Amino acid sequence: MAPDVPRRPPLEIFRVFTVISLMGFGGVLPFAYHRLVDRYRWLTAAEFGQALGVCQILPGPTICNLGIVLGYENGGARGAAAAVLGLITVPFLIVLGLGVAYQRFGDVAFVQNALKGMIAVAAGLILATGLKIGAHMLKDRQPTAVQLTRLAFVVLAFLGLGVLRWPLIAVVCILAPAGTLVFRAWPRP
Q1: Which pLDDT does position 13 carry in this prediction?
Q2: For a disulfide at 82, which of 13, 26, 94, 135, Cβ 3.0-4.6 Å?
Q3: Domain boundaries in the chain?
Q4: CA atoms within 13 Å, Cβ hemisphere of 144
Q5: How far is residue 1 from each of residues 32, 40, 186, measured CA to CA in Å?
Q6: What is the distance between the alpha carbons of residues 7 and 70, in angstroms, rounded to a whole number?
Q7: How far apart are CA 79 and CA 87, in angstroms?
Q8: Do the Cβ atoms of 105 and 37 come closer than 8 Å?
Q9: Taking the mean position of all CA atoms in its chain, how far away is CA 185?
Q10: Residue 11 Cα distances to 15, 18, 86, 89, angstroms
Q11: Quick check: 42 and 74 in contact, CB under 8 A?
Q12: Exposed e or buried b for every residue in 25-36, given b needs 16+ CB within 10 A?
């Protein structure tokens, strides 16, 4: 955390992460980006991308890892706990209620169609967030060759995960060292 960023009280951290979890129930990453980068300005787009990259390779749900990291940076151990509790408490209660409702109404055609629509919306939100992060990444005032190389790694990750359906760990174990070597060897401006 930058030294000029004030510590936030755990209650504020809990509130922000509760709102994030409720806005993006089932897929909170786009809403986390919007709230933390665009609305509250706790992070820049680049910082969000860096934190997200680290949190994706850690064990556990990415958004919970992100909550722990950002909660800790903004409020210490109590902030980390507040962020995780904000992310899981209300959704847990909602899932219990939805489970009971699904047991009763899961065979109804309207419910089945609604679930199919939610899947499409979630996929679109994840794609939009990826494009937004990618656009910020390419806006860097780096030489075109650097931007094209970054884009090549994005495409390779998409191909590995989305098209070839390789496990995430395999894609990370291949592309992370390759990207590190390529960009470490790149001359600094």
Answers
A1: 94
A2: 13
A3: 10-139, 142-189
A4: 0
A5: 18, 15, 27
A6: 11
A7: 12
A8: no
A9: 28
A10: 6, 10, 9, 14
A11: yes
A12: eebbbbbbbbbb
> How many other C-beta atoms are found inside a 10 Å radius of the C-beta of residue 50?
12
Q: At what angle do helices 144-158 and 109-139 cross, to 10 degrees?
A: 160
pLDDT greater at residue 2 or residue 125: 125
Tell me the CA distances in angstroms from 81 to 9, 69, 78, 89, 120, one per residue in order: 12, 10, 5, 12, 32
- Rounded to whole angstroms, how far apart are CA atoms 155 and 17? 31
In angstroms, the CA 70 to CA 124 distance is: 25
Rounded alpha-carbon distances, angstroms, from residue 165 to 22, 41, 161, 162, 177: 30, 35, 5, 5, 20
Which tokens sit at 37?
A: 């980068």
